[in-house]
Write a structure and sequence with these properties.
Layout (H helix, E strand, L loop, with lengths): L6 E10 L2 E11 L4 E6 L5 H9 L6 E6 L2 E2 L15 E4 L13 H11 L5 H14 L16 H13 L5 E5 L7 H18 L2 E5 L3 H7 L2 E6 L2 E7 H6 L4 H9 L5 H17 L1
Parallel strand pairs: 3-8, 3-9, 6-7, 7-8
Antiparallel strand pairs: 1-2, 1-4, 4-5, 9-10
The structure holds adenosine-5'-triphosphate.
The site of adenosine-5'-triphosphate (ATP) has 12 residues, from strand 2 and helix 1.
């Protein structure tokens, strides 16, 4: 993978009133790469994603996208490729407008962005549904007629409608049962291989992040405490907090269990 940066978050600070939520956060994402972002609840993961999406005020620092600072530029004011940063959120039950058909949900961003006429946008719906393995007849149905996993596929198709360079995925599989999680994760990977889209993949679940990420950033109390290649961070973590996080993560795979035992022994030895 090249060292070219698609997104370069540099020394970002965000305050919510008296709360200093992001503290000098720096992080970059390369084209076509998945950067996993893990950390306990409240550590600031979602806030980084929102800042990149332009829906959260940045107090200081820069967010360069293809070399141009997009911090504090609202989504509708973004132009060119910066307009192609999309999001998939956790809850497939509330992220889709229940009164719209799937076709309306998928065509809306293209029409709003004026990248297609209504007729052209409708023509693309079948292809978008196909890309997320949903049948063409889903177009005329409503979100309530679909399962959680299928709704998340619709949310992914909506994100794909604008041919994104980056998708901020905020806990996109956390609300799904385990077998559905695995299928949706495979879909994310397949879409990336086909389109070259990059992901910022926010999750509290290290097992999920380990499955999908090229690099992993670990957050704690508003700071990034570790950032590096996935294998390095998750199998040979430098930071004691990452080790603790690893020990707390659910692990099904016996090889990984051995990793975890080793990490635990190292941690004990250091203590
Ligand atoms: N709009 C807001 N106003 C005030 N405080 C906020 C706001 N959004 C987030 N926070 C606070 O900022 C901190 C970081 O929140 P954030 O949602 O980024 O954490 P997170 O790591 O994504 O947590 P989780 O895994 O629970 O989603 C938390 O203390 C949270 O309460």
């Amino acid at each position: 993978m090249s060292d070219e940066k698609l997104v370069d978050v540099r020394n970002v600070n965000i305050h919510f009133g008296p709360l200093h939520v992001l503290k000098d956060v720096s992080l970059d994402i390369r084209p076509g790469e998945t950067v996993g972002l893990v950390g306990e609840s409240g550590s600031g993961k979602t806030t980084i994603g929102r800042a990149i999406l332009g829906i959260c005020h940045v107090n200081s620092g820069q967010i360069d996208f293809e070399g141009k600072d997009i911090a504090n530029v609202a989504p509708r004011e973004r132009t060119g490729d910066a307009a192609r940063i999309q999001a998939v959120f956790q809850d497939p039950y509330t992220s889709l407008n229940p009164s719209m058909t799937i076709e309306e949900i998928l065509t809306e961003p293209m029409i709003a962005r004026k990248i297609a006429t209504a007729a052209e946008a409708r023509d693309r719906v079948r292809d978008l549904l196909d890309q997320v393995n949903l049948p063409a007849d889903a177009a005329h149905r409503y979100p309530r007629e679909f399962s959680g996993g299928q709704r998340q596929r619709v949310a992914i198709a909506r994100a794909l409608a604008l041919s994104p360079r980056l998708i901020v995925c905020d806990e996109p599989v956390s609300a799904l049962d385990l077998s559905t999680q695995a299928r949706v994760m495979d879909l994310f990977i397949e879409i990336q291989e086909r389109t070259g889209v990059a992901y910022l993949f926010v999750s509290h679940d290290l097992a999920v992040v380990r499955h999908i990420s090229h690099r992993v950033a670990v957050m704690r109390s508003g700071r990034i405490v570790e950032f590096g290649e996935c294998d390095q961070v998750t199998a040979r973590p430098e930071h004691p907090y990452t080790k603790r996080l690893l020990l707390a993560a659910p692990v099904a795979d016996p090889v990984r269990q051995a990793d975890r035992r080793r990490a635990f022994q190292e941690l004990e030895a250091e203590a």
